[in-house]
Specification:
Blueprint (H helix, E strand, L loop, with lengths): L6 H7 L3 E6 L5 H14 L12 E5 L14 E9 L4 H18 L6 E9 L1 H9 L1
Parallel strand pairs: 1-2, 3-4
Antiparallel strand pairs: 1-3
Length: 129
């Protein structure tokens, strides 16, 4: 159930989603560590917190980087409902790249982050049509 929307809750309600695809295996221990760090990192976006964050991991994906399917790589997609400043996007991208690189360093993983801005009202209207 969605909370009632008003000026005080609108900004904090906006749910972020971070999806990480990689062609390497992520242990449950690493996954939990990354999830926890992403939960802290999302606060780099004003009004966001782990309490609304949704995270997904897709390890052992068939990803090709520069035409090579053997190079360890990760694609990180961040969806934010609402808007943030360019600096907030830059800071979050830098932090997430640092987290994934550090946690998957044994593979020397190449990280490809992508930021996507979606607006909640547009999604609600599209779902109702």
């Amino acid at each position: 159930m969605l909370p009632e929307k008003n000026q005080n809750t609108e900004r904090s309600f906006i749910m972020p989603f971070i999806n990480t695809k990689t062609n390497v295996s992520i242990s449950q221990e690493k996954e939990l560590s990354i999830k926890q760090q992403l939960g802290q990192a999302i606060s780099l976006i004003r009004g966001k917190s782990e309490s609304w964050l949704m995270v997904n991991f897709e390890d052992n994906s068939r990803l090709y980087f520069a035409g090579d399917g053997k190079t360890p790589c990760a694609f990180v997609e961040i969806k934010l409902y609402g808007a943030a400043s360019s600096q907030e996007y830059e800071n979050l991208t830098e932090k997430i790249t640092e987290i994934i690189s550090s946690e998957l360093r044994q593979y020397r993983t190449k990280i490809v982050p992508q930021m996507r801005r979606l607006f909640f009202r547009q999604i609600v209207q599209n779902e109702r049509s």
